[in-house]
Design goal:
The complex is a heterodimer of chains A (about 290) and B (about 110). By secondary structure, chain A is an alpha+beta fold. Chain A is about 70% helix and about 10% strand. The radius of gyration of chain A is 31 Å and the shape is elongated. The two termini of chain A are about 15 Å apart. Chain B is mainly alpha-helical. In chain B, strands 1-2 form a two-stranded antiparallel sheet. Chain B is elongated, with a radius of gyration of 24 Å. The chains are: A alpha+beta (about 290), B mainly alpha (about 110). At the A-B interface, α2, β4, α8 and α9 of A face α1, β1 and α2 of B.
């Protein structure tokens, strides 16, 4: 039995109209579930963006031995000045470091009293032209004579970055599991619709209909449900992003997590593809259990 | 005599899915706020490297990172609940007692 486009479209439209309640339920399930999946993905992008902001534009410090010879120190300064990767370099001697220390620990007078200028090493504060050049610059001075240690700003927020990395992974896992449970529930919804028409399917099989002849309208029905639900969630994400961005304007604490419109568009396209895939594959799997007649 | 709980219906699973979706959204927002709080606190921390190589922080990790730790715990809690829910839905979906007979009738 050949499959005609006209038959498939007519059958799909009839199925959708007949099972209006189930269709609405499936669309709502897809919309809500995919909205959260999209929100989780956007949250992940927001965290990545914020992490990059912490890493970007920060400096590295080249700490020198307190007894470094002036010639060695000047040689390092000359080399740093000549490097095209370096945007800015500043020398902080022990006195300047101590003045900074007193300012930093103004609330801990005991700490300030227990430390003197000779306890703090002199250093060069280096700002590279691009964040990815930081390590290249640091590696050149790591084992240099007179250099005590090279400390990257990234090292200082390493624990925080580890935390955000872990949170990103958990969010991604939540999105994945949520998508799976949504797919299973859609499969159930479509299966219920097919279950209600199991006799019709059996009769069609008995009069010679092929499996694909029966399967395609159901698959298209699932895909339509998945796509409409995904489109609704896409719309929700776009609206929410606009509302959140305007609500957080001026709140520097959370503003850095706000994602761009391009991120929302990319996530939206992914959601649309997922909606079609989940709906189509779910209905194909659901109908296959009723074709073994 | 022991009372047996009725098996959950599809509607029960849907209800739980909706509830968990709302919990996940709320958990995500709370986690984000807590993480942002830790970021703000960590930004205010000064790290000084002494001449002997030791490092002195102006605030301990416990003070700055506890909101991030709570955020992680909350996110992990949501994840664990979702895994259990998905397992239940999968078991419900692939149960064998609704297979049709060869004539399409219920067993």
């Amino acid at each position: 039995m050949a499959i005609s486009v006209d038959y498939v479209v007519r059958e799909t439209a009839t199925n959708l109209r007949r099972n209006l309640l189930m269709t609405t339920a499936a669309i709502l399930t897809v919309a809500v579930s995919l909205s959260l999946v999209g929100a989780a993905l956007l949250l992940r992008q927001g965290v990545t963006r914020a992490t990059l902001q912490w890493q970007g534009g920060v400096e590295l410090s080249i700490f020198l031995n307190p007894d470094i010879a002036a010639t060695q120190r000047d040689a390092i300064k000359t080399q740093l000045d000549a490097m095209p990767e370096v945007r800015r370099v500043a020398y902080v001697d022990q006195e300047a470091a101590y003045a900074e220390f007193k300012q930093m620990f103004a609330n801990s007078p005991d700490m300030v009293e227990s430390v003197s200028a000779k306890d703090l090493p002199p250093s060069f504060r280096v700002v590279p032209r691009q964040p990815e050049l930081t390590e290249i610059v640091g590696q050149r001075f790591n084992k240099r004579e007179g250099v005590k240690e090279v400390v990257y700003a990234e090292d200082m927020v390493e624990t925080l970055i580890n935390f955000t990395d872990f949170l990103q992974n958990v969010i991604f896992a939540v999105a994945g599991v949520l998508l799976l449970s949504a797919a299973l529930l859609i499969l159930n919804t479509i299966r219920m619709a097919i279950f209600a028409r199991r006799r019709e399917v059996a009769v069609m099989k008995l009069v010679g209909a092929t499996n694909w002849f029966i399967r395609v309208p159901f698959m298209l029905e699932g895909m339509v449900q998945g796509l409409v639900g995904a489109a609704a969630s896409f719309l929700m994400l776009v609206v929410s992003r606009g509302l959140i961005a305007s609500a957080l304007e001026g709140n520097h604490l959370i503003e850095q997590f706000v994602v761009s419109s391009a991120d929302v568009m990319g996530t939206g396209l992914f959601i649309l593809a997922m909606g079609a895939l989940v709906g189509g594959a779910g209905s194909a799997l659901a109908v296959s259990r009723f074709l073994d007649v | 005599m022991t009372a047996t709980r009725p098996a959950p219906t599809e509607r029960d699973h849907w209800r739980r899915q909706l509830l968990l979706t709302l919990v996940a959204v709320a958990g995500g927002i709370v986690s984000l706020r807590l993480m942002a709080l830790s970021v703000a606190r960590e930004r205010d921390v000064y790290l000084v490297i002494m001449a002997d190589g030791s490092r002195v922080r102006s605030a301990s990790y416990l003070v700055t990172l506890w909101p991030a730790a709570v955020a992680l715990a909350a996110a992990f809690g949501v994840f664990a609940s979702l895994v259990v829910h998905t397992y239940r839905v999968a078991r419900f979906t692939f149960r064998s007692d609704i297979e049709p007979s060869p004539t399409g009738e219920l067993p």
